[in-house]
From TrEMBL:
Pathway: Quinol/quinone metabolism; menaquinone biosynthesis; Quinol/quinone metabolism; 1,4-dihydroxy-2-naphthoate biosynthesis; 1,4-dihydroxy-2-naphthoate from chorismate: step 1/7. Belongs to the isochorismate synthase family. The lineage of its organism: Bacteria, Pseudomonadati, Pseudomonadota, Gammaproteobacteria, Alteromonadales. Catalyzes the conversion of chorismate to isochorismate. The gene is menF. Transmembrane segments: none annotated. Pfam families: Chorismate_bind. This is Isochorismate synthase MenF. It is an enzyme of class 5 (isomerase). The active site is at 209 (proton acceptor), 259 (proton donor). It comes from Shewanella youngdeokensis. GO terms for molecular function: isochorismate synthase activity. Mg(2+) binds at residues 303, 437. Residues 188-441 form the Chorismate-utilising enzyme C-terminal domain. SUPFAM superfamilies: ADC synthase. Its cofactor is Mg(2+).
Length: 452
């Protein structure tokens, strides 16, 4: 049997929703779904006019999700602490035993500092409407939460959200942007000073790694559609996570990141150390030579080893056992290659996602070592607010959760694109080389946006 087209699917979803009032609900959170015919998710999302809009595609899975609207919105502003976050998380988890209910969102890089206003220190959404693809199966899903509203109210709100759905339109090709200006924070001169400070033996002795980053603001003559840009980016780095969160028309955060924070399946946890960078070669032979030089390089292998060490140390108290690759391998992207080590653990019973995030995030791949001293340095010296850049984005649910590290990311605003890139500064780091590494990390997105 072929899956019904969207309009038929919407009709049967509406019927299912209307009949909900005849059955008693087991859980306060109710999910209703129908199978639909194949549909391009990002094009569907770009055509919708409801906010928030979000998209998530895991790195090694055949699953992707586009979602709009809120059934429940957990927003944690500047005055929220980790204890409050964790309590809310646990309470919410108790509301459902359905493993298909997912909360999508993110946690800022620095939970003790100010963040971007609508994104907050953390924000998680149980969407009103989701479109999920699992391999070749597509589903239209709605979520209802009757813990705070009546079933009748929730059915009415969901039907109203469904009535606002728009049909997908093919994405129009992205036009190259006309660059009106570029502004880097920290500036090139300031970068040199910062690298000097961090590599100075007196500092390096107590803080062996700080991941310094830069915000590059591009002023553009025409606004760029974040979803079209994400779709193009996805085409260039298919082996990365791809995601985006847009809580209002004015701001969208998108990312095409290679880096996993963790993937949990029941109590099995998969994480990694991804750090150490070089460029791709122009041909296979040169590419291999760059990879080998990266594997042999002292500074880069040290950058990676510190991440491996810290992740293992953080996971040990939460786990029955932790296994980590002894030797790094190469992870290739369209313009750069990284050193990579896989790490696996079996979590102790009762360890929850929030504890895992608290322990791991931010890892020394984006923060530094020791965590506190590196983050303090970043907070005081970097000169801009990281917000969700280098934060943790993904989803959690009962049996499975997955979070990516939000690097290779951009905050899209009207007539402005903010790009972010960081580099691990350790003993032996040189300002010129690390600055060039930042440029290399932006090469893919810049090649999509500009004529470069
Ligand atoms: C911080 C970023 O990347 C991190 C830094 C790397 C490095 O310095 O070699 C490599 C991968 C990431 O761990 C970024 O891309 O913004
Ligand atoms: Mg590096």
């Amino acid at each position: 049997m072929t899956a019904p087209l969207l309009s038929h699917a919407i009709k049967s979803l509406t019927d299912k929703l209307k009949s909900l009032s005849e059955q008693p609900a087991n859980d306060p959170i109710i999910q209703v779904s129908v199978t639909i015919a194949a549909i391009p998710l990002i094009a569907w999302l770009a055509a919708q006019s409801t906010y928030p809009r979000l998209y998530w595609k895991g790195r090694d899975t055949e699953e992707e999700v586009a979602a709009i609207g809120c059934c429940t919105d957990f927003f944690f502003g500047d005055d929220v602490d980790d204890i409050e976050l964790s309590e809310k998380y646990l309470k919410q988890r108790e509301l459902t035993s359905n493993p298909n209910i997912r909360y999508y969102g993110g946690v800022a890089f620095d939970r003790k500092n100010e963040s971007w206003p609508e994104f907050g220190k953390a924000r998680f959404i149980l969407p009103r409407i989701e479109l999920r693809r699992s391999a070749t199966e597509y589903k239209l899903i709605v979520n209802l939460n009757i813990s705070e509203a009546s079933l009748e109210q929730e059915i009415a709100s969901t039907l109203a959200a469904i009535s606002l759905l728009d049909n997908p339109k093919p994405l129009t090709p992205l036009k190259k942007v006309a660059l009106m200006g570029r502004n880097d924070t920290p500036s090139r001169a300031r970068w040199d000073q910062l690298i000097k400070q961090v590599t100075e033996p007196g500092f390096n002795e107590h803080t062996p790694k700080v991941v310094l980053s830069r915000q590059t603001q591009l002023e553009v003559s025409e606004s760029v559609d974040p979803w079209t840009l994400l779709a193009c980016w996805q085409g260039r780095n298919a082996t990365s996570f791809q995601f985006g969160f847009q809580f209002s028309p004015e701001k969208a955060f998108i990312s095409c990141t290679p880096e996993r924070l963790y993937h949990r399946k029941q109590r099995s946890l998969f994480t990694e150390a991804l750090a150490g960078t070089t460029i791709r070669g122009l041909n296979q032979e040169q590419d291999k030579a760059f990879a080998q030089a990266l594997l042999d390089d002292k500074k880069n292998t040290h950058e990676n080893l510190l991440v491996r060490q810290q992740i293992v140390d953080e996971l040990n108290p939460l786990s029955n056992h932790v296994d980590a690759d002894e030797l790094p391998t190469i992870f290739k992207l369209s313009h750069i290659q990284h050193l990579h080590r896989s790490i696996q653990a079996e979590l102790k019973a009762q360890v929850n996602d929030f504890q895992v995030i608290q322990a791991l995030h931010p890892t020394p791949a984006v923060g530094g070592l020791p965590k506190k001293s590196a983050i303090d340095f970043i907070r005081q010296e970097e000169g801009y607010l990281r917000g969700w850049y280098a934060g943790a984005c993904g989803y959690f649910n009962l049996h499975e959760s997955e979070f990516a590290v939000a690097i290779r990311s951009a905050l899209i605003e009207p007539n402005r694109i903010n790009l972010f890139a960081g580099a691990g500064i350790v003993a032996g780091s040189e300002p010129d080389i690390e600055w060039t590494e930042l440029e290399n990390k932006l090469a893919t997105i810049l090649s999509i946006l500009t004529e470069l």
